[in-house]
Amino acid sequence: MATVPIYVGQCGNQIGYQFDVERFENQLSTSETTRGRKITHSSITRSKKASDTNYRDSIMIDTESKVINKVAKLHLTKSSGKLRARNPVAQVIREGNAISGKRGRGNNWALGYEGVGTESVLEKALESVRRQAERCDMFNNILLISSLCGGTGGGLGSRILESLRGEFRLEHIISCVVAPFLTGDTPLQHYNALLSLASLQKFSDAVLLFKNDMVSSHCHTSSSVEQGTDHTGISYTHMNRYIASCLAEITTPTDTLTPSSGFGCNLELSELVRSVCPQPSLKFLTTNQATRAIDDVKALCNSVIGLTKKESMSTKCHSLSNVAVIRGGSTSNSVYATLPAMEQRIKKDLRAVSWNPFPVDYWLSSECLAKGKSGNHSFTLVTNYSNIIPYAEHVWVKAKQMYTEKAYIHWTILKRLSALWKTSFMVIQML
Questions:
Q1: What are phi and psi of 331, to 5 degrees?
Q2: H or E segment and range at residue 41
Q3: What is the helix (H) or strand (E) element at residue 82, kind and residue range?
Q4: First CA to last CA across the chain, in angstroms?
Q5: How far is CA 192 from CA 39, 63, 199, 256, 419, in A?
Q6: For residue 1, what pLDDT is reported?
Q7: Chain centre to alpha carbon of residue 217
Q8: Smaller CB count within 10 Å for the chain: N or C?
Q9: Distant-in-sequence, close-in-space partners of 135: CB < 8 Å, separation ≥ 6
Q10: 316: helix, coil or strand?
């Protein structure tokens, strides 16, 4: 295992739970026989101690215990009975990996960033990350999942990100953040988004940005919503499953990146940063997925391209680099024959920049992860797309208007936080 997953706040822990379900329960660990030996490709931490193999590798952080207790209860339920027999690596939470405070942050970024009283959530979180990193076979990446605008996810998440960057200077830090609905979740969401985006730009190596408006829209037409579900009532659970499925597709070992020996190092996230972030300052990524029970990779590719273009708030967006993850029958000759045509389609429809000679990279795997159905095929596209610019402009304008009118300023300026305003406006303006 090369990655330490960290879930911050209610949003991060709920998505993290679905992500763990994808990784541990939906046949993400596939066995094959290589040179007479049984090899297991897995994203699960393998400890040297046999007694440690029943523990999850993820770290849950929140400023109140309600969500963490609920997730812990779900994991204990899921890890019992027949499921434990089917999956011997049960989802048992290590005590030191569940960290909570005694008071929520009420969607106040400043309270999350600065903390309340003598609570030591930040110190406990950093110590837990250090210990989990030591348990890894080969530690290279940190995956941080949180909301963009929550008091805990945005404020505390930014503080944790800043601290991790100082602690782990050589490892990749990949942030997965969820932006709120444009119609408004809280009155402070534009302030929170501005400050969080600035922190992500300064300290992350790559940012997987999911927008609630787009994810909700995708769930109406994607296979993330099970048949028979009322498509007019998309819940946060459906949206969390879609995001978790996208993350599982790009973090689970693929045939392309697994050496011939069969012993993969689970370096997909490191390779993702190398492939999709050709310039360190251009790091915001758009991720979309399509899954069908048909062997038509071209149709899946066209569907994902349509979803990606739909996310663009401007017709002048360009893609710098792309990674396409194709799972399910992707080792067949018919799939390889369609790769040049799909590459041309991606380059044309997503307006690939001319200076990148290799704008599309393919990761192939014969095993499909979607819902554990062997007949399914999935196509996941991660693109460094300039659609972050219109969204950042929207956040900047709204936050600037509120700041000029001094709206809610008494809620957001605490201690040294006032010094972040000027730099945050400058960082977002330079995107």
A1: -95, 0
A2: strand 37-41
A3: helix 81-86
A4: 33
A5: 45, 17, 11, 39, 15
A6: 62
A7: 18
A8: C
A9: 45, 47, 52, 57
A10: coil
What is the token pair recorded at 422?
Answer: 């000027």
CB atoms within 10 A of CB 84: 15
What tokens does 300 get? 């899946």
Q: What amino acid occupies position 111?
A: L
Q: Where are the alpha helices (DSSP H) in 266-387?
A: 268-276, 297-311, 333-349
Q: Which of 81, 90, 67, 95 is nearest to 21 (CA)?
A: 90
Q: CB 296: neighbour CB atoms within 10 A?
A: 14
The pairing of beta strand 172-179 with beta strand 141-147? parallel
349 forms bridges with which residues in the sheet? none
- State the Cα–Cα distance between residues 136 and 42, nearest whole angstrom: 13
For residues 25 and 87, the answer to whether their CB atoms sit within 8 Å is yes
Dist. CA 289–CA 287, nearest whole Å: 7
Q: Which of 200, 396, 197, 168 is nearest to 280 (CA)?
A: 200
CB 351 within 8 A of CB 385: no
Residue 102: φ, ψ to 5°: -115, 0
pLDDT tens across 367-401, in order? Answer: 777 654 445 788 999 999 998 988 999 999 999 89
Distance CA 93, CA 75 (A): 8
Answer yes or no: pTM beyond 0.85. yes
Q: Please state, in angstroms and rounded to a whole number, the distance separating the CA atoms of residues 17 and 40.
A: 23
What value does the CA radius of gyration of the chain take, rounded to a whole number of Å? 21
CA distance linking residue 23 with residue 1, whole number of Å: 13
Q: Which two tokens stand for residue 137?
A: 């076979």
Largest CA distance in the chain: 71
157 close to 197: Cβ distance less than 8 angstroms: no
Q: Per the structure block, which two tokens stand in for 58?
A: 């993820």
DSSP lists the bridge partners of residue 60 as 7, 98
3-state per-residue secondary structure call for 44-78: CCCCCCHHHCCECCCEEEECCCHHHHHHHHHHHHH
